[in-house]
């Protein structure tokens, strides 16, 4: 895998939308959809999207090396690190190398490995980094009252009987519609350190395009990837600043109150190509 590590820097723009759902609830705000408090634009954390990538890889490869997933429910990280470190003669660099070989998410996103009884294995900086996703417009946090007939305690059952079959009430929060934009960065320099390969980057694109297909839930409504525009630089350092490339991807509203993907237009790929430096390629994956 080391001989096939990526040699080029990449930047990318990822667009997805949500309809009648909550893409990323905020536990500090009664699980309401995350929002910028100043301008009411919606937010989805980088961790949320990384989790969907991990879940897709886990489903596809069933935790088989070299596509095992390190950050997942049930893993006792300290024990795993201790065991690997003992196998590598307690050498931190060797332990990191072994963990990168075994776990897709570590060699992709990096990880803090400073846990365990053996002193841990330091920190791995991953080549792939995501920003928070931000909605193109202000979002409306709709709250809905829902009812349920089932009860969880005898006390609740007696209250329902007293009200003659009345239901208990709950709350559900959704966004009617929002289009989100996320930026991503892939460092060839950090990829050399973790062994992030051409196969790994292709799997990343695949995971982003299928991120929501196996993550359906009533609370999340309809979530759909809409665009994945990738900029490939000519070398490991890069041929242009990422911000200048991202500015080439413009999103324009067609109506005052968008309620579908068709209510937006995105810069055509040919127009982006015409504005690029010669040493940067652009691909429209979706």
Give a quick rundown of the structure.
With 286 residues, the chain is of the alpha+beta class.
Shape: flat
Total tally of structural domains: 2
Number of helices: 9
> How would you spell out the order of helices and strands?
EEEEHHHHEEEEEHEHHEHEEHE
- Low-confidence parts, pLDDT < 50 over ≥5 residues? none
Average residue pLDDT: 92
Rg calc = 22 Å
Largest sheet: 8 strands, antiparallel
Output the structural class: alpha+beta
What is the percent of helical residues? 25-40%
Number of strands: 14
- How large is the share of residues in beta strands? 25-35%
What distance lies between the first and last C-alpha atoms, to the nearest angstrom? 27 Å
Word description of this protein:
The chain is flat, with a radius of gyration of 22 Å. It has helices at 46-61, 77-87, 92-102, 104-109, 154-162, 188-194, 198-209, 242-246, 269-275; strands at 10-21, 25-26, 32-33, 41-44, 110-112, 123-125, 128-130, 133-138, 142-148, 168-186, 222-233, 251-253, 264-266, 280-284. The mean pLDDT is 92. 30% of the residues are buried. Helix 2 (77-87) crosses helix 3. It has 286 residues and is an alpha+beta fold. Strands 1, 4, 7, 8, 9, 10, 11 and 14 form an eight-stranded antiparallel beta sheet that branches. Helices cover 29% and strands 29% of the residues.
What are its keywords?
single chain, 286 residues, alpha+beta, 2 domains, two-stranded antiparallel ribbon, 29% strand
List the helices and strands and how they pair.
Elements: E1 10-21, E2 25-26, E3 32-33, E4 41-44, H1 46-61, H2 77-87, H3 92-102, H4 104-109, E5 110-112, E6 123-125, E7 128-130, E8 133-138, E9 142-148, H5 154-162, E10 168-186, H6 188-194, H7 198-209, E11 222-233, H8 242-246, E12 251-253, E13 264-266, H9 269-275, E14 280-284
Antiparallel strand pairs: 1-10, 1-11, 2-3, 4-8, 5-6, 7-10, 8-10, 9-10, 11-14, 12-13
């Amino acid at each position: 895998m080391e001989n096939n590590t990526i040699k080029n820097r990449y930047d990318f723009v990822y667009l997805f939308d949500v309809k009648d759902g909550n893409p990323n609830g905020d536990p500090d705000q009664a699980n309401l959809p995350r929002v910028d408090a100043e301008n009411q634009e919606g937010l989805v954390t980088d961790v949320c999207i990384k989790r969907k990538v991990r879940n897709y890889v886990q489903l596809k490869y069933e935790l088989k090396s070299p596509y095992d997933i390190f950050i997942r429910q049930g893993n006792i990280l300290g024990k795993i690190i201790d065991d690997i470190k003992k196998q590598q003669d307690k050498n931190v660099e060797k332990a990191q190398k072994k963990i990168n070989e075994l776990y897709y998410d570590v060699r992709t996103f990096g990880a803090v490995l400073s846990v365990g009884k053996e002193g841990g294995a330091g920190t791995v900086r991953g080549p792939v980094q995501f920003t928070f996703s931000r909605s193109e417009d202000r979002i409306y946090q709709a709250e809905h009252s829902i009812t349920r007939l089932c009860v969880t305690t005898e006390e609740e059952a007696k209250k329902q009987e007293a009200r003659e079959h009345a239901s208990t009430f709950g709350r559900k929060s959704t966004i009617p519609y929002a289009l989100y934009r996320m930026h991503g960065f892939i460092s060839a320099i950090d990829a050399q350190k973790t062994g992030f390969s051409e196969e790994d980057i292709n799997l990343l694109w695949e995971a982003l395009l299928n991120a929501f297909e196996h993550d359906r839930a009533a609370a999340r409504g309809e979530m759909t990837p809409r665009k994945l525009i990738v900029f490939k630089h000519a070398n490991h350092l890069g041929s242009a600043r990422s911000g200048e490339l991202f500015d080439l991807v413009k999103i324009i509203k067609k109506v005052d109150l968008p309620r579908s993907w068709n209510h937006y237009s995105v810069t055509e790929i040919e127009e982006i190509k015409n504005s690029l430096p010669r040493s940067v390629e652009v691909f429209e994956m979706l």
